[in-house]
Design goal:
162 residues, mainly beta, Porin, 8-stranded antiparallel sheet, 0% helix, elongated
Length: 162
């Protein structure tokens, strides 16, 4: 019998999309929210893992010329879907070939990163984080350091009129 709790070697290069909405308070504090969805195909049988999550974000940032360095954290929740394919599917097989799991998570996500200003409205961003599941531990939960790279599109409006 196949053990559905056995951790299958989940590793690889996930792809996804996400976004952040931050409001500036003072010179260095930003508060807001963020959310992401990432997908990973892994293993020799092309199993599939999807992680979707979002939450409340607090970070501190420091501007150094065209760079913005930041660190902070997010607390929130989301869900994980995992289709682990046990053996290659053949047209003649009636055996159970896959295990499907889906569960909710509550998480904290500490992070550090850097943005580089390309223009007034576009920044390049690099970010490193490590999601920690706060509730029931699942052997197929994707843990470890994650690296993000992408663009941030800015919409700033001066709310204080002089």
């Amino acid at each position: 019998m196949i053990n559905p709790q056995k951790n299958s070697n989940i590793q690889g290069f996930p792809f996804g999309i996400g976004g952040v909405l931050r409001f500036h308070f003072g010179k260095h504090l930003r508060i807001g929210g963020e959310g992401y969805s990432s997908n990973l195909q892994y293993g020799k049988n092309k199993s599939f893992l999807s992680l979707g999550w979002g939450g409340f974000l607090v970070d501190c940032h420091w501007n150094i010329n065209k760079f913005t360095v930041f660190c902070g954290g997010t607390i929130g929740g989301g869900s994980v879907k995992n289709v682990r394919i046990i053996n290659s599917v053949s047209a003649n097989s009636m055996d159970k070939n896959a295990i499907y799991s889906k569960y909710a998570i509550m998480l904290i996500d500490p992070f550090v990163g850097m943005e580089y200003r390309i223009s007034r409205r576009i920044n390049l961003i690099a970010k490193v984080d490590c999601i920690v599941n706060l509730v029931q531990k699942h052997p197929d939960f994707p843990t470890g350091t994650r690296v993000y790279a992408g663009f941030v599109f800015l919409h700033t409006k001066n709310l204080i009129r002089n």
